[in-house]
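Good morning,

Attaching, inline, the backbone tokens for the sequence recovery test we're adding to the shared suite. The designed sequence is right after.
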């Protein structure tokens, strides 16, 4: 997937929300990063991505309302700064199909120091702030 600006669209198959905080993974079973595929294990830091889709029939609507929850995804600690920076820049991330490290390489090749711009990745500070 190539770099593009995020746009509003109707009829998305699913949508997501993330609180952009690094949390300690406390489950016994590991989960794969939705970007690079590395396994996030107990004690590792991650960003949780909550996902939903629209209801498919009346039964789902009665049970869940307008939004049916899907399994959450995780973004590992190495992908998290890239995820936060691109999200803040309104870049279409293509979660689940795009490796954020590859997207960062593409971004830096397009807008590298020769063009006068260098992407500075944020660092996570205690208290839940990305600086």
């Amino acid at each position: 997937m190539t770099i593009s600006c995020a746009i509003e669209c109707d009829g998305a198959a699913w949508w997501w929300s993330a609180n952009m905080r690094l949390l300690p993974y406390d489950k016994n079973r590991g989960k794969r990063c939705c970007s690079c595929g590395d396994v996030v294990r107990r004690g590792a830091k991650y960003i949780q991505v909550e996902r939903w889709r629209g209801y498919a029939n009346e039964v789902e609507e009665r049970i869940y309302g307008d939004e049916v929850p899907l399994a959450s995804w995780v973004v590992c600690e190495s992908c998290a700064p890239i995820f936060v920076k691109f999200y803040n820049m309104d870049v279409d991330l293509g979660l689940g199909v795009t490796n954020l490290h590859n997207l960062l390489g593409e971004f830096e090749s397009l807008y590298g120091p020769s063009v006068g711009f260098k992407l500075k990745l944020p660092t996570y500070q205690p208290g839940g702030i990305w600086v």
